[in-house]
Amino acid sequence: MFEKLAQIERSYEELTAQISSPEFMSDMSAYAKLMKQHRSLGIIVEKYREVRKMTEALADSKEMLDMADDEMRELALAEIAEIESKLPEAEEELKVLLLPQDPNDEKNVILEIRAGTGGDEATLFAAEILRMYARYAERQGWKMEIMDAADTGVGGIKEAFAMIEGDKVFSKLRYESGVHRVQRVPQTETSGRIHTSAITVAVLPEAEEVDVQVDPKDLRVDYFCSSGPGGQSVNTTYSAVRLTHLPTNVVVSMQDEKSQIKNKEKAMRILRARLQELEEQKQHDELSAERKSMVGSGDRSEKIRTYNFKENRVTDHRIGLTVHQLDLVLEGQIDEFIDALRTHYQTEKLKAEAVGA
């Protein structure tokens, strides 16, 4: 492992020299690519140097024990104890950084939210979860744009698509895919009975044109008039767009913009993301049912997370984490779940790597 780390450090130092060169600074595209690589390697090198420094200090302190007087020996023992308490955690963090990175981790995402079981209550919850992710994106310094949303007219949404752009968006949101269940007393419930509803969340890495090529011959494009809640006409021009990918029968509709061109561009971004997901499922048998296992049918029994209003509780069922701060969670403070899920799945990867080694 340390031989590999020494090689990474050398590459990092070479990149440091390169990005200081005027010839690279004149080519902004190449410069941006180098800077991104430099930052990624820098995180590993920084942790490697920290571990190396601790390891060297530990060796020096142990060596001091054989030649030190009582006072220095006591200091050396204290330093050894402190380093030995911190070193295993630092080494574990370094191992995680060396895990093979998912090429999608750096990508922006298309967030899909759909109301499932529960009628109007499910649509209201879908709107609340969309707002939760908007608040989280804002806290992260990301840009979130609602690409399309089907409002219900009662403050809820049947489905919504959003583009979230920023640093490592997919790597942080990837484990949010699945069925989110809500338990609460609806405002229309006179007997005070708790209802259970569910929505589905899908987090798809954005696919660029170079990632997914769509042959125009495989695409059927339909134009129609946009409509609002209840079918009320929003405009009388054929600005809404429906794309059908004939080989896969994937259908995407978009009517958020007044411009036909803009609606088609947004629809294509969603279509490419879905087609890329289908392709990845074909390439990896273990991912063939991933979308269904993550998103499911929207049935309450397939939940990954439960939001219980009466108990002010949010529970993630995959890792058994419960937080009694539902109000703060709905304000976008979901870092505890994001961090715990990433740590859990990184640990699982480490175990798999150890078994395969």
What does the model show?
The chain has 357 residues and is an alpha+beta fold. 48% of the residues lie in helices and 20% in strands. It is built from 10 helices and 11 strands. The chain has helices spanning 2-19, 22-25, 28-65, 70-97, 119-140, 169-173, 260-283, 290-295, 326-329, 335-356; strands spanning 109-115, 143-151, 157-165, 178-184, 195-205, 219-224, 240-245, 250-254, 303-308, 313-316, 321-323. The strands form 2 sheets. The protein has an 8-stranded mixed β-sheet with strand order 2-3-1-5-4-9-10-11, sandwiched between helices. Helix 1 crosses helix 3 (28-65) and helix 3 packs antiparallel against helix 4 (70-97). It is globular and about 85 Å long. Residues 229-234 and 285-291 have low confidence and may be disordered.
Describe the structure using short key phrases.
alpha+beta; 3-stranded antiparallel β-sheet; single chain; 8-stranded mixed β-sheet
Summarize the structure.
The protein has helices spanning 2-19, 22-25, 28-65, 70-97, 119-140, 169-173, 260-283, 290-295, 326-329, 335-356; strands at residues 109-115, 143-151, 157-165, 178-184, 195-205, 219-224, 240-245, 250-254, 303-308, 313-316, 321-323. It is an alpha+beta fold and 357 residues long.
